[in-house]
Amino acid sequence: MEIRFTDEELQKIESLKTRYLKPDSVILEVLYLIQEKYGFISYEGIKYASKILDISEEHVYGIVSFYSMFNTKPIGKYHLQVCTNVSCMLRGAYELLHKLEDELKIKAGETTPDGLFTISEVECLGSCGTAPVIQINKDYLENLNEDKLMHVLNDLKKAYGN
Amino acid sequence: MEIKLLLKDIPDYHRIDVYKAHGGYEIIRKALQMKPDDIIEEVKKSNLRGRGGAGFPTGLKWSFMPKDNSIPKFLCINGDESEPGSFKDRQIFEFNPHQLIEGILISAYAIGAQTCYIYIRGEYFRWIELMQKALDDAYAHGYVGEKFKETFGVDFYTNIYIHRGAGAYICGEESALMNSIEGKRGYPRVKPPFPAQNGLWGYPTTINNVETIANIPIIIEKGGDWFRNIGEPKHPGTLLFGVSGHVNKPGVYELPTGTLLTDIIYKYAGGIPGNKKIKCVIPGGTSVPPIRGDQIEGLKMDAESLKEVGSAIGTGGIIVMDEDTDLVKVLARITKFYWHESCGQCTPCREGTGWMLKILNRILHGKGTSKDLDLLIDVANNIEGHTICALGDAAAWPVKYMIERFRDEFEQRVEREIVIDIPNKVHSLRRTKIPLTPLKISSN
Lengths: 162, 444
Ligand SMILES: Cc1cc2nc3c(=O)[nH]c(=O)nc-3n(C[C@H](O)[C@H](O)[C@H](O)COP(=O)(O)O)c2cc1C
Ligand code: SF4
Ligand code: FES
What we know:
The structure holds 2 protein chains of 2 kinds.
Chain A: H1 7-17, H2 27-38, H3 43-53, H4 57-66, E1 78-83, H5 86-90, H6 93-104, E2 117-122, E3 134-136, E4 139-141, H7 146-159
Parallel strand pairs in A: 1-2
Antiparallel strand pairs in A: 1-3, 3-4
Chain B: H1 16-21, H2 27-32, H3 36-46, H4 58-63, E1 74-79, H5 89-95, H6 97-111, E2 115-120, H7 125-140, H8 147-152, E3 159-164, H9 174-181, E4 205-209, H10 210-214, H11 216-222, H12 224-228, E5 231-232, E6 235-236, E7 238-245, E8 251-256, H13 261-268, E9 278-282, E10 291-292, H14 303-308, E11 317-322, H15 327-341, H16 347-364, H17 370-383, H18 391-405, H19 407-411, E12 416-421, E13 429-434
Parallel strand pairs in B: 1-2, 1-4, 2-3, 7-11
Antiparallel strand pairs in B: 5-6, 7-8, 9-10, 9-11, 12-13
Residues 170, 188, 342-346, 349-350, 387-389, 391-392 of chain B line the site of iron/sulfur cluster.
């Protein structure tokens, strides 16, 4: 897949650079943009970031692998990120995770064959007061229970026509 | 005493017009009439201590910044908020962003920082948006950026930018945060040099927590003396206590320091579901030593009081566990977190967290032996104090203190080993393993 930013996107990156003493600081934003446009960060994505930032591919890869929000593999349309850290665990996070795994017939870290859902087990989302919490793409689903979760899951499935 | 400094009961306070209508962006005017050093003195007088975990005196930290304003200087606001059990800074992003911005302006003026970065964890998409909106409004009103000069008639201005992270707890550690802003992996730096000497791109830098800086306008408005009289004098002000786990009403409660832990749990957070007893409380985020349920009676929530019971105030994130909680499971989960988040630079932290996790999982699956408990403490002791940053200590403490304070519970989960004397010179001491099911052993 060819990775390419539009002129407008390139301009945005250029203007972000002016916020910092050195241009390397925008690397996370460049990677975010690649991930948003292409779903994940492939080797082509790393090469592209390396080229437009004039940073070595090794360094870019080092960044991609360091930060947990970057995916180096394609993921589902809906990324179900289940927090299982203590506060959520005390309020049933693992039960929710297992329910999800049963329901979608995949394990955490896997994607459904139709490419709709990926399940991940994640660390504390900073939402412990409304535990248990699942982040779906950018949104937090708080104060969850099984019923509520199944409801949301069905809505998402329906929205996608199956 | 109902006192709200940060999360006020004013509808729509997050909007710039409402904030202004209540005297917002007037305190910066007052601050600009003071000399930067006088502001630092006022903050020192207030005894304000950092809300990011370490509780370092804020005024003192600021006084380490060189006075020379001809070199670039930076202020970083730490909104990484990834400590398990902590969810308070996001309340400020959502409900009181302008007080944070005004606090940043005053702080930047005091230390002479021309550029400020608010570092927010990447998962907080929604709160980044809310904060960006507030920032855009402040820019549009001429409160931030070059227009500041014109608005306030001074020869100083500061730019404020949001820098978002991308999922890494370690980036909350101040030197890792700076590396992350510089576009590197979030590796903590060896200290000294400290950030005030050698920070972002090698220039003087101050790092403060979101909640710390949101307190600054109050201190400048009402004075350091006034502030110092709220709560406990050695750790004054209010704290945003985040209560989670086994309570009926989890959430963030703003209360003066020194509030009784039992009041927070029972009066504000509604007590324990099913009226169960409390087995264990983590009083300040998972990095601080857990305390026993029978230690909480009369315990005040401030840095000094918690130190006395062998714990720490941390981020004020209180995790409550009822009598039915499996502490082995809890400790294994906490340890898994630190193992996952260790940046890998220091061998004791990188390897030690993995070993502790393995041993704990072994115990969890009923395969542990009594030696494992001492082994865990031994590994923890070898991490503590032997690493570049405090994540090592944060990983060691829960293990060390949880086992120390709940030894019986852990003992019950491991195979015991007893020594049986056998009247045979060759095998005079034979070690015998006893299976997990509790056996009655007579003592003679
Ligand atoms: C592993 C680790 C993670 C940390 N995470 C945070 C964080 O998310 N937010 C924060 O304000 N401080 C965090 N800190 C503390 C910072 O290093 C620093 O002490 C703090 O931001 C200083 O601000 P304060 O003096 O206003 O508290 C962390 C420290 C360590 C060792
Ligand atoms: S203590 Fe752990 S997290 Fe901190 S620098 Fe060392 S390896 Fe990294
Ligand atoms: S433990 Fe799940 S959000 Fe904090």
